Amino acid sequence: MGLTSHMNIAVIGAGNIGGTLARKWRAAGHQIVIGARDPAREEVQQLAAELGDPARATTIDAAVQSADVVLFAVPGSAMSDTVRPLGAALNGKLVIDATNNVGAEVANAVAIIAAAAPQADIFRAFNIYGFENFAEPELSGVQADLFFAGPDGEARARAEQLIGDVGLRPVWLGGPDHAGMVDQFLRIWFALVFEQGHSRRLAFKMLTA
After folding, report:
1. Domains in the chain, start-ordered, CATH in brackets?
2. Which one of 42, 71, 118, 178 is most buried, by most CB atoms within 10 A?
3. How much is the pTM?
4. Cβ-count burial of 180 within 10 angstroms (0-12 exposed, 13-18 middle, 19+ buried)?
């Protein structure tokens, strides 16, 4: 089915970001498994039940093993401990880093993932907005853009499909070495929302002529 094919996605993290993206991707027909340190936790079980069969909740390791795509949506400060035990299990998969280690010098975990799984296709995406803009990606009738970075080629096409399936327009900035450029949009969003007092329903749009 090519680029319109459905994917097996492991969503690591059942919070606002992970939960919102899991719902969007399930609605688009993808197979979802929720990976959590404690799969029996009520929040995790409720999300799996909401997604419906065949979605399920399991350990992080088991979720990754069964997936083609892995989304990390856990606290950024937890990424080293989360990724290190997975190691080579991430190789050959499309891995999306949606985490933000806000207090650290580098907000993304691309280098951490690459060190553990050098053969993974690593993307920096879904980190520059609050979850509300993933739940409702149109603002005043205008589709929000999502700036992202990752390898070109077939993996990029799949990443763009996943971004489009959420309802956002993908704007590719370049390879994984551009992850820090993506994070500049996060810093701008934080400045506008938390320092200038704008609504969390704030997003960016690239205009071209």
Report:
1. 2-195 (3.40.50.720)
2. 71
3. 0.96
4. middle
